[in-house]
Amino acid sequence: MAEKNLKQTPLFDYYVEKGLKLTDFGGWALPIQFTKIQEEHDAVRQTVGIFEVSHMGEILIKGSNVLEWFNQIITNDTQKTSLNDAQYTAIVNENGYTLDDLIYYYVAENTLFVTPNAGNKDKILAWLNEHNSDNTVEIVDQSAEYGLIAVQGPNSEKVLKEMATPEVLELNNFQMFSEQTIAGVESVRISKTGYTGELGYELYIPWSETAEVWETLLNVGESYGLKECGLGARDTLRLEAGMALYGNDLSEEITPIEGGIAFAVDLNKENFIGKEALETVKNDPNRYMSRGFELTGKGIARQGYKIYESEESTKVIGEVTSGTKSPTFKKALGFAQIRKPYAKINNQIFIEIRNKRVPAMITNKDWLKNK
């Protein structure tokens, strides 16, 4: 099997046993779907779904000055966090381009738990070590120690209530509790976070016990409409929720300001890597802006499709970074980078799909507010 040459998550044998088609996702063997993407997507929007995302990285950083040190590395501000808090941020290079977008957790005094995207883990680990030449902090790659299961949807809290200690239900959004017990498995980190736009939790589980927790979730969740979900539904859910995907909407050629996560860039804090470059980008009147769009003509706009001001214009004003047919709203929508002078909400644009200009309207990425 070709997927045997890929990295294997804790559920790999389970996937093979079920006869699922696995795909290469950042070098890992993962399923696109278990049943139908529409069914899995609907479960998360209406009841509850679970995703295995053990391919994500986990890096522990410790030191008496860890918050100050990490503040020079990231675009957001560590001083805004308190114990148990999570914060979404980006790491950029000196030119302001995005090396990764990630969440880190302030899990204990002088200790951060950082979760880079799978394909960027080695790059981010090297970047952190490069900027720790004086050993200000201790950096430990724990990616091989944790499996990761996301429990997402309106019924996610009900499922966990039957499996976890009552303390878990006290979690606020963007918080993590460590040293928790789930279904008899100890040393689990639980965060109230997710990538779907719904109520949800992410469980960082000792690698060898991840499959056991998955099976328990299936059994407990059956009465709550729980479904297993793959990469396909994960992508449609995050897109409807207006959440960026590294490699599409963010990259080493796209700054966080132009990629739609300017809210995670604090230009008011003291110096950090890339700050000067990002200030220049922000003040550029012709910079790209990340916008939502909805097609008003027929078709589906995919990553890389060119955008024009009119049907006749030869001037490219932007490019699609993510696009799909929305399972919830039954229409084609997506994200695009568009030059600022043309990026006004409700403006009409034309996207070239198979050599034909298809009309679309620029929108905010707030589709779920109208769900």
Outline the secondary-structure elements.
Blueprint: H1 12-18, E1 22-25, E2 28-31, H2 37-46, E3 48-52, E4 59-62, H3 66-71, E5 86-92, E6 98-108, E7 111-115, H4 121-130, E8 138-141, E9 146-152, H5 156-161, E10 176-182, E11 185-191, E12 200-206, H6 210-221, E13 226-229, H7 231-240, H8 275-282, E14 288-295, E15 306-308, E16 316-325, E17 332-339, E18 348-353, E19 356-363
Parallel strand pairs: 3-13
Antiparallel strand pairs: 1-2, 3-9, 4-7, 4-8, 5-6, 6-7, 9-12, 10-11, 11-12, 14-17, 14-19, 15-16, 15-18, 16-17, 18-19
GO molecular function: aminomethyltransferase activity; methyltransferase activity; transaminase activity
Enzyme class: transferase
Family: Belongs to the GcvT family.
Question: How would you describe the overall organization of this protein?
Answer:
The glycine cleavage system catalyzes the degradation of glycine. It holds the Pfam family GCV_T_C. It catalyses: N(6)-[(R)-S(8)-aminomethyldihydrolipoyl]-L-lysyl-[protein] + (6S)-5,6,7,8-tetrahydrofolate = N(6)-[(R)-dihydrolipoyl]-L-lysyl-[protein] + (6R)-5,10-methylene-5,6,7,8-tetrahydrofolate + NH4(+). It is a single chain. The protein is of the alpha+beta class and 371 residues long. The chain contains eight helices and 19 strands. 19% of the residues lie in helices and 32% in strands. Strands 10-11-12-9-3-13 form a six-stranded mixed beta sheet. A six-stranded antiparallel beta barrel has the order 14-17-16-15-18-19. The mean pLDDT is 97.
